[in-house]
Amino acid sequence: MLGFGIALEPLNLALVIFGCALGLFIGAMPGLGSVNGVAILLPMTFLVPPTGAIIFLAAIYYGAMYGGAISSIMLGIPGASTAVATTFDGRPLALAGKADQALITAAGASFIGGTVSVVLFTLFAPPLAEVALAFGSAEEFALMMLAFATFIGLGGDDIPKTLFSICIGLVLSAVGLDIISGEPRLIFGGLPGFFHGINFLVLAIGIYGIGEMLWTIESSSDGVKVSQASFGVGRIVLHLKGLKNTLKTTLMGSLLGYFVGILPAAGATPGSIMAYGMAKTMSKDPDSFGKGNIEGVAAPESANNAASTGSMLPMLTLGIPGSPTTAILLGGMVIWGLEPGPMLFVEHQDFVWALIASLYVANLAAMLINLAFIPAFIAILRTPFTILAPIIFVLCLVGGYAPTQSLHDIWLMLIFGVVGYLMRKLDYPLAPAVLAIVLGPLAETSMRQALIMSDGSLMIFFERPISGTIMGIAIVLFVLPAAKIYRSSIARKNN
Amino acid sequence: MSIVSKKLRNMVIPVAVAVASTLTFSTSAVAEWSPKKPIDFVIMAGKGGGADKMARLMQSVIEKHGLSSKPFVPINKPGGSGAEALLHLKSKKGDNHTVMVTLNSFYTTPLRQPGLGVDISTFTPVGRMAEDTFLLWVNVDSGIENIDQFVAAAKAAGSDWLMAGTGKGQEDQLLTTFLNKAYGLQIKYVPFKGGGRVAKELAGNHCNSTVNNPSEQLGFYEAGKTRPIASFTPNRLPLFPDAPTFRELGKDYVYFMQRSVVGAPGMSDEAAAYYRDVFARVYATDEWQAYMTKKSLMGGFLTGAKLKSYWAREKAIHEVILKDIGEI
């Protein structure tokens, strides 16, 4: 309660609202992303007291999570890896003229995800920190396998093409520094630009942004396609009421996202993908996913917001950032003289509770601001493609340049744009490649660490109770699609 | 404990202020150079790591006290254990608006990868801001309280004894190799990304020991989860008075991590003087001094020829160590 007192102080409240609005904008711009937003604004926080400063940065982080859905839905370009899964159904909905429904559901699901996770955080922070501590390299690898298993099922009917797409992503993710030996690898004869590896955003913006644009130009060479999107207050209420249809999916996504989020190093991306996969698996109508099923927006959006709150837990209790953005927040706390770690909850209670209370407030503020801006976003869709395309192109260039500030990455992004266009033309799913580049390094690192520990024995993944259980589930999920195909081919024969 | 650290601080500040004021004087005497555009503040490591945190602290201190007329813009170049950052700086020859935060990979990476063609003696010295210290840590659950028990337990475990550390061929592995040689052990080294992650591996009992910096292990130490066994410093650290130094234990081994700022090669003398002045002032601020005390950092401000000869000495030491462990 003390926390709410601090969070609702006029200055802090103003910071939350300003932070959310700023975060929303940062998140909605493809490529800016919360990491850069928080990093750029960190020095500004010296103008306010430490508690206000962290509240401000947390609000930006939070707002950006809401904002990420906007470019995923409106432009089909995921602005952050956490919003990739939102494009699967969000984009088809927007193209079908239901952008308002997708945006409102995204905002509502985000709100529920955020709220569920903050409540869990409030009630169970210390015991959950122990869970995070129990996760070692073997468990982490098992979790990554689970994520990969989920999206084998996502690729649609053509499993070989999905696997191929995953492999492209994995190979690209191996470029750069070998995490274990420290040696550069696959750097194309030592081009300096490849030393830092291939950034997720360079691939995602290339494939989705540039590739999609090329695709649109080809498919609408004669005329300009304008989406029919209407909007009114009545529809907001209607769609908010519609949220209860997706409530089960949303709650499931929230819980899943939160638990994946509290594990160090995992972050919100695997959580949102797993939530999407789970929603599809448990749906009565799995075939409608990827073609504009509203549950396909609700699941990843609730999960990524829940995970972003979740990733604050290892940051505050263990001093380990669960995501790149929390890594910057962590740096900020050190600068303000707050030492994250097990003692923070004992020595700086007022700060911790003020932060948690501000998350409740930020959650509400971000949703309201988001809803207020929806008409403006809808207007974007009515803009003719000939005007929109150059703007998107510039946004793509900025987005590709921002993460590493290197021109090399812009060229790379343009190449990926052409590759993405060709993949679309040949009907290869794009998402598995993009997700593999995010999860690949995490999986590789944890696998190699675990194997060093076990002297190369794979049993380490199955002997440990937590890791063994997760691996078991992952294997079942891997086998499931194969079994389905086998069954249907038997059925065809019998017919 | 606090009295000792206060003493240390009281000693350091007057020296620093003296250094800063002389520098200010000499700068204004040379020429009134000031940056024409925002300064690229390259960080030789990824976001969220020790070097990154320190760089952002410097940036914040500069902003807060208005020490520079143009902002310092941090850019992370973590690739190839700093190879990417070193190549970047090398390519900025003659540039007056690029400075970089370095650590010990400043010596080890060019030694391990001669193909990069990086000669650190060509870089412009700006300032050594601190030297970070190392200790040997175990989880309290292990029951180990001193080096004898540590050696006995590690001997018994053989190559099943796991040491978590940050990156291959870097500081933590050099120290692990030292322990193996000095005590006849077969500790196995497992690299992780970032010192914070390494500290967590120990607290979660996923490894048997670490050689973390104090700042990385402090939280778990205060929570009673981990324990320092001995320090790689010349004297006991004020924060951990019960942990003896390896020197006391009969193994004369001291190892530091430098936290320095370096400018592009061929930077103009006026610009170099400007940055030396900025960072000497940063060093003298209360924020920086408080940070040094709290994180158990050591080392005074070094610049100019002194910093160059410090680098030459450290590089020679690292060459010997790397040859010793067969990395080069």
Set down the secondary structure blueprint.
The complex is a heterodimer of chains A (495) and B (328).
Chain A: H1 2-7, H2 10-28, H3 33-41, H4 50-74, H5 84-95, H6 99-134, H7 137-152, H8 159-174, E1 176-177, E2 184-185, H9 200-219, H10 233-242, H11 247-261, H12 268-282, H13 295-310, H14 312-318, H15 324-335, H16 344-347, H17 349-382, H18 385-401, H19 407-425, H20 431-453, H21 460-463, H22 465-494
Antiparallel strand pairs in A: 1-2
Helix pairs in contact in A: 2-4, 2-17, 3-4, 3-15, 4-5, 4-6, 4-13, 4-15, 4-17, 5-6, 5-13, 6-10, 6-11, 6-13, 6-14, 6-17, 7-12, 7-20, 7-22, 8-20, 9-18, 9-19, 11-12, 11-13, 12-13
Chain B: H1 2-30, E1 39-43, H2 50-65, E2 72-76, H3 83-91, E3 98-102, H4 105-112, E4 124-132, E5 135-139, H5 147-157, E6 162-166, H6 171-183, E7 188-192, H7 195-203, E8 209-210, H8 214-222, E9 226-231, E10 257-263, H9 269-284, H10 286-294, H11 304-324
Parallel strand pairs in B: 1-2, 1-3, 6-7, 6-8
Antiparallel strand pairs in B: 3-10, 4-10, 5-8, 5-9
Please tell me about this protein's structure:
The complex is a heterodimer of chains A (495) and B (328). Chain A is 74% helix and 1% strand. Chain A contains 22 helices and two strands. The model of chain A has no long low-confidence stretch (mean pLDDT 83). Chain A has helices spanning 2-7, 10-28, 33-41, 50-74, 84-95, 99-134, 137-152, 159-174, 200-219, 233-242, 247-261, 268-282, 295-310, 312-318, 324-335, 344-347, 349-382, 385-401, 407-425, 431-453, 460-463, 465-494; strands at residues 176-177, 184-185. Chain A has a two-stranded antiparallel ribbon. With 495 residues, chain A is an all-alpha fold. In chain A, helix 2 runs parallel beside helix 4 and helix 8 (159-174) crosses helix 20 (431-453). By secondary structure, chain B is an alpha/beta fold. Chain B folds into two domains: 3-132 and 256-324, Bordetella uptake gene, domain 1 (D-Maltodextrin-Binding Protein, domain 2, 3-Layer(aba) Sandwich); 135-231, D-Maltodextrin-Binding Protein, domain 2 (3-Layer(aba) Sandwich), CATH 3.40.190.10. Chain B contains eleven helices and ten strands. Chain B has helices at 2-30, 50-65, 83-91, 105-112, 147-157, 171-183, 195-203, 214-222, 269-284, 286-294, 304-324; strands spanning 39-43, 72-76, 98-102, 124-132, 135-139, 162-166, 188-192, 209-210, 226-231, 257-263. A five-stranded mixed beta sheet of chain B has the order 2-1-3-10-4. In chain B, helix 1 (2-30) packs antiparallel against helix 9 (269-284) and helix 4 (105-112) crosses helix 11 (304-324). Chain B is globular and about 65 Å long. The relative contact order of chain B is 0.20. Mean pLDDT of chain B is 86; it is low at 1-30. Chains A and B meet through strand 1, helix 15 and helix 20 of A and helix 2, helix 3, strand 7, helix 7 and helix 8 of B.
